[in-house]
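Lab meeting prep.
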Amino acid sequence: MMALWRALGAVLSAFAGIRKGRAAARDVRLTWWQVGLAVLLALACLIGGLLLLVSWVTASPG
């Protein structure tokens, strides 16, 4: 479970473009399925957030 959090941190920091050298060296130990699961989780949260934002913006008052 801890490896999934590390993979999620690696994916999000790679998306933002901020990763220190020591943390990047630890990322080498992550397996492809841990990173893939983290990408899918982050993508699901992003799409869900965008859908909520669009429904909130386009909702008619009243």
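Slide two material, second protein:
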Amino acid sequence: MDMLWTAEFWVAVGQIIMIDILLGGDNAVVIALACRKLPPHQRTQGILWGTAGAIVLRIVLIFFALTLLAIPFLKVVGALLLIWIGVKLLVPEHEEGHANIQGSDKLWGAVKTVIVADFVMSVDNVIAIAGAAEASGGDHSMALVIFGVLVSIPIIVWGSQMVIKLMDRYPMIITAGGMLLGWIAGTMVVTDPALVNPDVLPQMPKIPLSDSLRYGAGAAGALLVLALGKWIAARQKPAKVAAMAETAGQPTAARLQRVLLAVDGSDPSARAVQHLLALRQELRAPEALALHLVNVQRPISGNVASFVDTQSLNEYHHERSEAALASARAALDAAGVRYQVHEGVGAPGPKIAELAQVQDCNLIVMGTRGLGTHTAALLGSVAQATVENASVPVLLVK
């Protein structure tokens, strides 16, 4: 019980919980979609039994992973995989082809889908958690794993919508998670038995392990993930005409002809709606304004698509878009404004810019949290990504 009073234990627990929340969001989507076809009285049972099976399976897999980390050079391989996983978190995903595996309308069929999906999709979680526990847990690695998984998986399952909304609204959470994986990867490399243990491959030169080396390697890994992620994301951006970002105080009436209004249900997007309504009143013919109301959902990992049919995924994205659009639609309806609704799936910034081009809009209006240019680029701001990809002016409303 003495371990409960050490800072290292709680730091490691925090790392495990954050890893599970970041990398387990897709698992939560599978659980929700696999059980949605069950009768209402069985839906909770399906979620409970599927989650229980996933927890047991996860702990067993991590136990074996912890054992395997004693093999020379396996930590180096695991570190490289974590770097790749961390970079993938920072690079916008695109919708992948969907398989036709249907969610079951039988209780045990749904439970089986949840457990099999968790087994297939948990390689990244298992390696990352094993690395975090082994680096910080010492003799209490399994206790850390069990405690962290028991806490985090219920959060994922029952708080999945809240977690997903937080990550959509604050992309810095994803950036921090990717850098955390890089940190763990760096510390894994310099603690590989082949590099530090004189009894393992004694013919190889060893490095003197110290706290300074571990922290330095962890920081290097975190910065490597951030740099690679931003570099790859930048290379994926299509070549477009540089957009002009306008402040809310500049005259825009001349451009209020065909407007794309991008919303996500947040307070900044609500302010953008009100600002656009105020600008509309300044027009000589407000009814002539062609307004396109847009919400873009981030794509679900292709791993999820292997276990959930296309129709269920489309319904899932539609439900989330409807919720995000609700307050904006209510405000526009109350003001008597006519508009067209568009729902998209993809990286929000590029997708909003693409929709504006397709609909021949001459202005994009959206809310922003008011981050500086460099901070927004670093943390993955949707507004910043829209400005960088759009070929028309973007009006950002704080």
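Talking points for slide two:
The chain has two domains: 2-236, 245-397.
The two ends are 49 Å apart (CA to CA).
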